[in-house]
Amino acid sequence: MMVFKIAIIILISYLLGSLNFSIIVSRKFVHKDIRESGSHNAGATNMLRTNGKKYAVLTFFGDVIKLFVAVFIAYLIIGQNDFNSNAYLFKSIAGLSCVIGHMYPCFFSFKGGKGVSVCAGMVACIDWRIALILVVVFAVVVLTSKYVSLGSIIISLCYPILTYIMFKPETITINTSFISSRWLATLIAVVFTLIVVLKHSANIKRLFNGTESKITNKNKK
Fold first, then answer.
1. Dist CA 48 CA 103 (whole Å)
2. Side-chain half-sphere exposure of 142, counting CA atoms within 13 A
C-alpha cells in the first residue's frame, strides 16, 4: 500500500513539475517561447534577462509554489502521522520528482529548466534554516560576481554539507540500520546537488572560459 502511495506521489509531483512557469508565462504574456530567447533555458534567470523582473518574479514564485503543492499532496496521500514521522524522505521524494518534471516536462517536449527555483522551494520546505543560509550565500556570490549560474552551483554544493551539519534525526524514523539517518539525508541532498551541477555543465564550461553571461541592470517591462 505504501509503495502504491509513493508511486502516486512521484507521478503527481512529476506532472506538477512539468508545469514549467517560464514557458507558460512567456507564451501567455510575451507571446513567445522563452526557450527561443537568450540562453534558451526555461528558467527565471533567462526570463529576467530577456523579459524583465516582473515576469522573472512571476516565474520564480510559480515554480516554487508548485513544489509546495506537490509536498502538500504527498502529505494528503500519506496521512499526517506517517508523513510527519518521515517528513524528510517524503518531502524529498516529492521534491525530486518535481525537479525532474521541471527539467524534463512532459507538457513541453521534455525540454525544461535547470531546477534551481524548484530545488530552492524544496530546501525551504525541508529546513528553513538551511534555506536562509543558502539565500544569503547566493546573494553574496551573485552580487559580487554578477554570475547567477555561479551562485546556483555554489549553493547546490553547500546543500549536502549544511544538511549533514543541521539535519534533524527525528525527521526520519524508519529502520535505517544499514546507514545512519544523517548520512541518508546527506546522500539524498547529494543527489539534488548532482542533478543541479549536471544541468549547469555548460555554464561551468563558460565560467572557466570567461564567456558566461552576467546579470545586467536592464529594467525591461
1. 18
2. 15
Hey, what's the cell of 191? Answer: 543527489
How many Å apart are CA 174 and CA 158, to the nearest integer?
Answer: 26
CA 202 to chain CA centroid, nearest Å: 18
Q: Which residue has the cell 538551511?
A: 130
**166-176: per-residue pLDDT in tens?**
988 877 877 66
Rg of the chain taking only CA atoms, in angstroms: 18
Calpha distance 213→37 (Å, rounded): 14
For the whole prediction, is pTM greater than 0.70? yes
CA atoms of 101 and 18, how far apart (whole Å): 4
Whether the CB-CB separation of 107 and 50 falls below 8 Å is answered with no
How far apart (Å, rounded) are the C-alpha atoms in residues 211 and 21?
27
From the list 196, 40, 33, the residue with the least C-alpha distance to 107 is: 33
CA–CA separation, 73 and 167 (whole Å): 24
3-state class (DSSP) for residue 218: coil
Rounded Cα gap, residues 18 and 59, in angstroms: 13
Q: Round to whole Å and give the CA distance between 32 and 208.
A: 31
Tell me the pLDDT tens digit for each residue of 144-155: 999 989 999 999
186-214 mean pLDDT? 91
